[in-house]
Design goal:
Elements lengths: L4 H9 L17 H9 L6 E3 L5 E6 L2 E2 L7 E8 L5 E10 L2 H4 L11 E8 L17 E3 L22 H6 L2 H30 L1 H13 L5 H11 L1 H6 L4 H8 L13 H21 L20 H13 L1 H10 L2 H9 L26 H30 L8 H9 L7 H11 L3 H5 L4 H13 L13 H7 L2
Parallel strand pairs: 5-6, 6-7
Antiparallel strand pairs: 1-2, 2-4, 3-4, 4-5
Helix pairs in contact: 1-5, 5-6, 5-14, 5-18, 6-7, 6-11, 6-14, 9-10, 9-11, 13-14, 16-18
The structure holds iron/sulfur cluster.
The site of iron/sulfur cluster has 13 residues, from α16 and α19.
């Protein structure tokens, strides 16, 4: 197959713009409903600020589900200026900004607009932690129609929905393949740089550790892999698991009473093995607050991921052999064989034992590792070989063709909010949405287009070049 990555690169070189919008189902009424209706544009887009400035909403942004303001990636024009990119916070009362601690919270530093319903008696100025003044806009719910549908979509379809729906299917596929190849190449280049810095095994170990941490705990898992190193752990294989749990800060409580009977022996053994190393490694122990547990499913608890990392250390030679076979199936089989007498039946060190065994690394996590680590790694290796070959024989040798063929076949195993948003923006709810989210490659392509076009657009699609570029794509 032709490598479409350079063509996609040309496509994004022709673009620089921004917009997006998404809704989530309402969780509770009042402030959330207000936010949803704001986002739906029911209050309008043009306002006058508390100090008389003309405020135009260029982009409503995206719902923020993390710490910080209600909407991020928004764009606001003040008195006809260039759009200011940043976040929007919506409160019922202006003073909630202070009462809720936003004024001293660095996560609110990027706020470009503070929207509220009620003004307090005394004049209130919205200021960020760095003492920057944020424009204020007051909205009036009385202007809203009475009924409000809770059936709100995740995002609004964009201007490209119609052209993408009408293009011949093979042309849409060709665009998505090119975007996916471009993304794979970018990830490969990142892993190549890591290999240059740390060597092949350490780079892979760090990448897989990060992927095992999911989004929430990517940082601590990566830190552990960086701080301990595969080489050092493999020198002390018997104690490797205990050292991993010790550095993670999970063996700091010397009270066995908090553990269930089924866990006591396991934890005691970890302690006994960790203690002789503790003094030497104390400086590297992670603080407890680095772990994020609130939005983590029990089966994905970081303690189970550490156990998986310990098995990976033990089984590294087998992992290398699987890697050499260069098929997704070999890698899936490798992770599927992970077994651990304790972690197969426990969600955490303190939880009751489960009756049913659980996979240490589930199908969707393996898919993520394949997409973000293994295939980019193979791609990086191929690029190196092809480059050498090209210099030696033929300047037209294509890059990474066999890797791409295998990659393009990988079925999608999971989705996420960003992907759903991207799919809605580009395909709406049409049949092409299902057709083009079936493989990991096409999911990655949608994310790439979303990042390169939707997230760069400041014009609510009006100036985005993607739809016109699509029409010209051959
Ligand atoms: S690609 Fe461009 S036209 Fe399509 S939804 Fe994104 S910003 Fe709008």
């Amino acid at each position: 197959m032709e490598n479409g990555s350079p063509r996609y690169q040309d496509l994004i070189a022709s673009a620089r713009v921004h917009d997006r919008a998404l809704f989530l189902p309402l969780r509770t009424p009042n402030e959330l409903e207000l936010q949803a209706r704001w986002f739906a544009g029911e209050f309008g887009k043009n306002f006058v600020s508390a100090t008389g400035d003309k405020i135009d909403i260029v982009q409503f942004g995206t719902w923020n589900r993390e710490a910080g303001p209600d909407f991020c990636d928004a764009a606001v024009r003040v008195n006809g200026s260039e759009p200011l990119r940043g976040c929007i916070e919506i409160d019922l009362v202006d003073r909630n900004w202070d009462l809720h601690g936003h004024a001293i919270n660095p996560a609110f530093e990027e706020t470009v607009l503070h929207v509220f319903v009620d003004k307090s008696d005394r004049q209130f100025f919205t200021r960020t932690k760095s003492n920057r003044n944020v424009p204020q806009v007051r909205i009036d719910p009385a202007i809203l129609p009475e009924t409000f549908s809770a059936n709100i979509p995740l995002a609004r379809p964009g201007r490209c929905q119609a052209p993408l729906g009408n293009l011949p299917e093979d042309r849409v596929r060709s665009v998505l393949d090119a975007a996916a190849q471009f993304r794979l190449q970018k990830k490969g280049a990142r892993i190549r740089a890591k290999i240059d810095n740390h060597g092949r095994d350490e780079a892979l170990f760090q990448e897989i550790a990060g992927a095992l941490g999911y989004k929430e705990n990517k940082l601590p898992l990566t830190l552990i892999a960086q701080r301990l190193s595969l080489k050092a752990l493999r020198k002390d294989l018997k104690d490797a698991e205990a050292i991993l749990f010790g550095i993670a800060g999970l063996l700091e409580t010397p009270d066995l009473a908090i553990y269930k009977r089924s866990a006591k022996n396991y934890v005691r053994e970890l302690w006994d093995r960790w203690w002789p190393h503790r003094d030497r490694l104390q400086r590297l122990i992670l603080p407890a607050k680095i772990w994020k547990l609130s939005s983590t499913r029990p089966v994905n608890h970081p303690q189970r991921r550490l156990a998986a990392l310990a098995i990976l250390v033990q089984e590294w030679p087998a992992f290398r052999r699987s890697l050499e076979r260069r098929t997704a199936t070999a890698i899936e089989k490798f992770f599927d064989a992970f077994d651990h007498p304790f972690w197969k039946f426990h969600y955490t060190m303190t939880a009751d034992a489960s009756l049913e065994p659980m996979a240490l690394v589930g199908e969707s996590r393996v898919a993520d590792i394949l997409a973000n680590v293994i295939f980019p790694f193979w791609r990086a290796e191929d690029a190196c070989h092809a480059e050498a070959e090209r210099r030696r024989v033929d300047p037209s040798t294509p890059l990474g063709t066999s890797v791409w063929r295998e990659y393009a076949k990988l079925p999608a195993r999971l989705t996420n909010r960003r992907l759903e948003t991207a799919a809605t923006r580009l395909f709406g709810d049409g049949p092409r949405r299902r057709e083009f989210t079936k493989t990991i490659a096409h999911q990655q392509a949608l994310l790439q287009i979303y990042e390169d076009f939707c997230l760069q657009d400041n014009s609510d699609c009006a100036n985005c070049p993607f739809p016109e570029q699509m029409a010209k794509w051959r």
